[in-house]
Design brief:
The structure is a homodimer of 636-residue chains.
Chain A lengths: L6 E2 L5 E3 L2 H24 L23 H18 L3 H17 L8 H5 L9 H4 L1 H19 L3 H16 L16 H12 L2 H13 L6 H9 L30 H18 L2 H17 L31 H18 L2 H15 L17 E2 L1 H6 L16 H10 L2 H4 E4 L2 E4 L5 E7 L2 E9 L6 E8 L3 E8 L7 E5 L2 E3 L5 E2 L2 E8 L4 E6 L4 E5 L9 E6 L2 E6 H4 L6 E3 L6 E5 L6 E11 L8 E2 L5 E10 L11 E2 L2 E3 L1
Helix pairs in contact in A: 1-2, 1-16, 2-3, 2-6, 2-16, 6-7, 6-8, 8-9, 8-11, 9-11, 11-12, 11-13, 13-14
Amino acid sequence: MSKSSWSPAELKRVRIEGGLLGERQRMILRRSIDQQYQQCKSTGRIDALKLQWKSGSDLPKPHEFWDSDIGKWIESAAYALMIEPNAELERRVDEVADLLEGAQQPDGYLNSHFSAVAPEKRFTNLRDQHELYCAGHLIEAAVAYFQATGKRKILDVLCRYVDCIDSTFGTEPGMKNGYDGHEEIELALIKLWKTTGDVKHLKLAKHFIDARGKQPHFFTQEAISRGDDPKKMWGGGYEYYQAHLPVREQSTVEGHSVRALYLFAGVADVAAATGDKPLLKACRRIFKNLTGRRMYITGGVGSTRHGERFTYDFDLPNESAYAETCASIALVFFAQRMMNIDRDGKYADAMETALYNGVLSGISLDGEKYFYANYLATDPKWHRLEGGYPAERQGWFGCACCPPNLARLIASIGMYVYSTGEDEIAVNLYANASATFELKGNRITLEQRTDYPWDETVRIKLSVAELKSFTLHLRIPGWCRKYKLKINGKKTNAKRFVKNGYASIIRTWRDGDRIELTLAMPPTRVYADPRVRHNTGRAAITRGPIVYCLEQSDNRAHLNAIVLPEKSKLRVNYESRLLGGVTTIRAKAAREKFNKGDKLYQERRPQTVGQSIKAIPYYAWANRGEGEMIVWIREG
Amino acid sequence: MSKSSWSPAELKRVRIEGGLLGERQRMILRRSIDQQYQQCKSTGRIDALKLQWKSGSDLPKPHEFWDSDIGKWIESAAYALMIEPNAELERRVDEVADLLEGAQQPDGYLNSHFSAVAPEKRFTNLRDQHELYCAGHLIEAAVAYFQATGKRKILDVLCRYVDCIDSTFGTEPGMKNGYDGHEEIELALIKLWKTTGDVKHLKLAKHFIDARGKQPHFFTQEAISRGDDPKKMWGGGYEYYQAHLPVREQSTVEGHSVRALYLFAGVADVAAATGDKPLLKACRRIFKNLTGRRMYITGGVGSTRHGERFTYDFDLPNESAYAETCASIALVFFAQRMMNIDRDGKYADAMETALYNGVLSGISLDGEKYFYANYLATDPKWHRLEGGYPAERQGWFGCACCPPNLARLIASIGMYVYSTGEDEIAVNLYANASATFELKGNRITLEQRTDYPWDETVRIKLSVAELKSFTLHLRIPGWCRKYKLKINGKKTNAKRFVKNGYASIIRTWRDGDRIELTLAMPPTRVYADPRVRHNTGRAAITRGPIVYCLEQSDNRAHLNAIVLPEKSKLRVNYESRLLGGVTTIRAKAAREKFNKGDKLYQERRPQTVGQSIKAIPYYAWANRGEGEMIVWIREG
């Protein structure tokens, strides 16, 4: 790993209690993980590992994605166990571990779909069949459960499977010089390498990245070997699979959005691990295109449900937005890695935006319903008629990638709050999160207290066993125009510390040192580049990292008849009993009157009447029944 | 027919020369009809009538729609022959007539698909297989060709086919108490009845309308008879087929838009023919819902390509508009019938709007390329990615309903320009159209001279063999706020003549009487009801019946970055060399500057620079290469 990169904090050593992130994490630990287990159980996903399905049997046929859901559920459970003991949960995981062990083939191969349904098709269609994607999720599960419990069973099973994969894929004669159509295993192998220390795991990850998109094209050769027409493919073209160009030559983020961002998370990992500069530069180019041209203000990405994919620069429709929950999660993964490598707050900004908006919107306040697609505007009638997903969260999905992905991210959010380096600690996100670090053998504890993102003030108390000089990096978010820093009650000129989005305080810290950081959070109107044709003439309201929206339940139907005057003041109000406690924003606005009679079109400009509007955090929408919602509000 | 209804003018007696409609008609007669014949020939549509296709043969398999294309092509050719002799064209039709005769089965049945491909499936799936729809189009062809040439061959063939249909469908025991999933035969049978005078043709039309949507449901019974699950159907539900309720009980225009409007055109015909008030009232309700809630400003209808259908009130998206050319044509058919029955200009207004905008946009200026879907805004990249049709007109379509539909409407437009009653002549549309009428044995000729819709003045000269008292109805369009009328050079207080959208002048007319009507045509901003969420904050520009749009070629890309100030003056300019000669509209506007660097979102409201904009008639868009287009322009 390059010398100056940060590492995520150890999850076991971070405690988040209360506050928005703490509450969401608590809901995941208390409800979602159990609910998702029940879903995996009742839909047959877990029992599929018994490999009892046969043609004609009554059992549900194992789908090629199913192992990935098991992987993400185990990973979530492992993070939960790192946070607090739970014997019943651990017992369930151990049961699944036994099933995984039982499902492993003599040569190490492990996949409930292929082993039961189509063993002869194993590794014949990497392009479309998610085989290594499932392997990747199981590897992540294995690493997390090992870290949580020290139990090696799943880890050993997966190491054997990786040996099997490693002996199948590579550049040597007789091996498949290929890679998976749905990336995921790359970043998983890096986690495995960091756990096992076995360099072959790193090399395999690097192989999958190096081989991707090269000529002669693996997917073409593979299709010909199968006797298929290589031009006929699910994704329509190789850019769907990020295989249109070698990874090092890619500059725009293309194709299926989750795949693209899982890939570049893995690419960033490999770049950091190997010091491969062209790879790192590719990551920076991709990030720039992603956040500068193709990202919703919520951190949602992937503009269309047709292919769940990126489309083209500035194409960010609101009502038909796809912005898959998993894609925002993948953006968090990618941004976190870049933040830790480049030590730059711009990555943390994207990570925070996605987390508080496009990710959190994916789960209901009760922790048991999920959005797959996160629209930025909805007329529920339109969503019902035009296909895609309805405008209400669902309990589960046939392709159930998002729910356990949410669970594993939010359960492990402590690793995103803090990073550490050799003699440094970085606070990337603000939350009621206490954490302990070891810097060169010194134990340092940070006690963070805040009502962020509702409140502007963050207080951090340091505990150090002895005097200790190290750098404390406090993130100054990109959205923040004014901030104040006090150390031990004394005002400090914070600006002189700030570089690349962090106030980096180098100091000999004493036990009991207190920091107070105030990040001014005025409600703010934000405008999209006018090339985003969907948002011209409109403003979004934000406050701190939170993007707001108007919902029908607060503002009546026909939200696009509302005009927010340019001068209208935005007023902030914390409502403890609304939507689990949120800060709302109110303003005086106007509403256009509907035409009289049956005049659909008329020469008179619509007249207006006054209306007070109330905006709520976007992540909390659709928790009060079906209704219209908009993020981008007309200005006039 | 109810006593006071008007009838369309006889096409043979109307001559349109020059002007916009004249030019479009000339292009149809000179180019489109021939080009469409070549397409029907080269794709196998015509030769399919030889019934030589067999399973395994190299011949193209006759599609179930193909006969309808032949029908519409013959109908277009017949109208062309009414306008001017064309021996080669007539020879071609006669050849096809022989093929139709040859394709007729001993019992009268006639369908190139079923007779060649699936004779055993004849009349087993009316819901989805367009059998009577094809019959309808062939009936219309038969009537038109008989009227054009007096030749009876096609008419006799179709009368025999109608006998076969008549003996199959009805309420008597052993008959199918059903109707077609794609309406068309209803209005065709009325044309046949008016030609043959045979009341059984009227009765059959009435049967199809009376049976529709009744319980027990024909489509359900039919599906069960086939052994199909009645719930599985192409359209998703019976409203797609306008069979969700008995026709007399329908109040909102639902489902597939072409089907719906063909149906109600036929319903209006039957209501007029039988004096059936509930049927007529249903037509009025449907028209009200259609034009007051579900019609684009262009007269386009059917908001979505998913089912080519109506969606719900006020749902009129621009970029994803479907607004099929055929649907606007069907709207013209329906509106014309209602205009003639109710003698009310509001129907003529809708007819004119659809004709000059949603219909004419369907065909390129060179007469050889067609739009199936008529978007009201396009970003060509979006249309390429999101499926549907591209944003450029095409030479032909697999489902080629629109091209010959355009040809038959525009070839026969003379029948829409004028209507007549017992002692009355109505001028519904203004064009360089001379026409001759017989009113109670008196021959009256109207010579209409105008540059409408570019010029405000219409001059009509009457020729009457002897003094004659009759009513001349001159339409005062709904869009017209100021008009002046001169009779023989003398100003007349026109207002006192105006009722229901027509200035109705009762007078003893003399040979050489001259009328001059001036319809003020200022360029106008039009606003949609604010419940149309896609158009709030935007204005459309219209002038007379013409809806305007901005194209990239005149105004540069990123048309949604343009803001038209509320006070900006719209200036009119006739450009004889542009797009075949059009009046354009210019204004001073502003363009928002794009963000600098990679700031996709920023807190500063976009700054603007001045830009002159130029709007062209919507129907003429996409004749100068691919590019952006918008109808609804941001106002500020």
